[in-house]
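Form 7-S
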Amino acid sequence: MNDLLLDLYSQYWDGMIENVYKADEVNHPSSYPILIQATPHYLNAPKRVMFCGQETYGWGREFPDPDATTPSKLMGVYNGFVNKNWGGKQIKKPGYNSPYWNFQWNIMKRFPEVGYVAQNIVKIGKRRDKGCDDFIFQRTLDYFPVWKEELKILRPDCIIFLTGSYDWRIRKTAGDFDIKHVEGVGGLLDQLVFKDPTMPITFRTNHPRALQSKGKYYLMADAISDIISRL
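Output:
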């Protein structure tokens, strides 16, 4: 699986560096893309869940020279940040101490047998600021269109978007869908029913920081845990 991911990233790498990363470093300086490395636990898990956020920023900043940076190095960054605690038998929280990562961990520790992978709907964010502008986003779609191919390689049973109102970017990246509201959670959870029949079961809720501010953080963690329990 990781070899297939590396081959995929390598296929588009040079075009991404020239047409995204170096495209406009004054007005639209981009970060490097988030490149996934699956854990052995994920590879062998009976069920797999993908948590999908918005985008990173400043990703890979420890590699300032794009001509000396490789997909393999960035997969190592992912492995060190997201998968850093999967070396032993006991799983521990990925990422760092924030509502976004804590929310995932709240769910992960309930189902330690499930394999988890962290993804973003926007593969490339800004280099020195949060968010993703339209220039970087469109260039990513044009020159680093790997998202759907990653999905085919990773084969999750379920996707949980923790993105809030990013639907237009989800449609541009993953394909068109209908929205089916989930009752009983204050209008904060929707099932996305994709036109593409190969897409796994998919749900979308607010970013965990927004859930926390609305007082719905644990309600949503319970609702998503119920979904995972029925996979």
